[in-house]
Amino acid sequence: xxxxxxxxxxxxxxxxxxxxxxxxxxxxxxxxxxxxxxxxxxxxxxxxxxxxxxxxxxxxxxxxxxxxxxxxxxxxxxxxxxxxxxxxxxxxxxxxxxxxxxxxxxxxxxxxxxxxxxxxxxxxxxxxxxxxxxxxxxxxxxxxxxxxxxxxxxxxxxxxxxxxxxxxxxxxxxxxxxxxxxxxxxxxxxxxxxxxxxxxxxxxxxxxxxxxxxxxxxxxxxxxxxxxxxxxxxxxxxxxxxxxxxxxxxxxxxxxxxxxxxxxxxxxxxxxxxxxxxxxxxxxxxxxxxxxxxxxxxxxxxxxxxxxxxxxxxxxxxxxxxxxxxxxxxxxxxxxxxxxxxxxxxxxxxxxxxxxxxxxxxxxxxxxxxxxxxxxxxxxxxxxxxxxxxxxxxxx
Length: 396
Prior knowledge:
The chain has helices spanning 13-23, 36-46, 61-68, 83-93, 110-115, 130-140, 162-171, 217-224, 241-252, 270-280, 282-285, 328-347, 359-362, 365-374, 391-394, and strands at residues 2-6, 28-33, 51-55, 73-76, 96-99, 119-121, 144-155, 180-183, 186-189, 197-201, 206-212, 232-238, 260-263, 266-269, 291-302, 305-314, 355-356, 378-385. 36% of the residues lie in helices and 27% in strands. A hairpin with a 2-residue loop joins β13 (260-263) and β14 (266-269). Residues 391-396 have low confidence and may be disordered. α1 (13-23) packs across α12 (328-347), α3 packs across α4 (83-93) and α7 crosses α10. By secondary structure, it is of the alpha/beta class.
């Protein structure tokens, strides 16, 4: 089996490639990127005879297909804006695939994947991805489900790459139609900074105010849990406090609309200018605490009693005590490793369905949790009577 990592020179996708080198049986692993020097640099860093590199441009459909058709599984690490194009290339080349974001354009390729007897899993990093597995695991143990609340803390610089800067702008776009909650059978659109809730994340991250964000778990879990009576699904997230402070100010002052401004005879979107600044300044490229923290709460009936099932995860520290997990890599490895695990499960036939398949329906949670444990990423679960609810969870 052969794997190709599209956008493989990116900070996250290169971690997925490293995981394939360390844990998979792929006989060939290709780093494909629009930047040939960056792709070559990553291939040399991986330092494995199975690894090579090539140039790929997903905006060139025919050219990309001609490259991809020689592989079995594609890992798409491109930006949100390119995910639809990358999925089209993968579908027409006739290979399996998955990506990190899962924001919806992949669904347009469902028929093409089915026609070729292939599967594509949209959104398989930490969140979406591992969060879907946590929610499914908890919900599958219940006879009925009332509420699902997914929360995460992504502790990384606000703009350590162009893709991350783009994600920041996307998620707090005031006009974004995809920022929804599932409530009483309908998807309800909400503005940025809606429904604040205090979420206690595992140490060392602590308790943070989190707001509704536009993530695919809301949509896919509503479909997966439709027969269990679910009435509320909310997905929240936070970044480091300093990041959130800046985003709130930019939102309140209208910067997030990205209105064009004229400067020295040129026109530029104001958020484009802010993003360019953050990509170049130390404040935009560093933070105090690095890593990822998940918190998934499912409330329903278990063995006839109302219960609260909470799932969290931990990973090696970012303080330098764990080689390979220093600073930013504690974040990028957390996101990249699940995508590699998904690719490996596909290669080993441990995937369900054909076409574009949501994470909940594609993989068995315990397969993913066991694979994460081998990488020292541990999933914890606590099941308690519904009456025992920490005060921090009641706020907001």
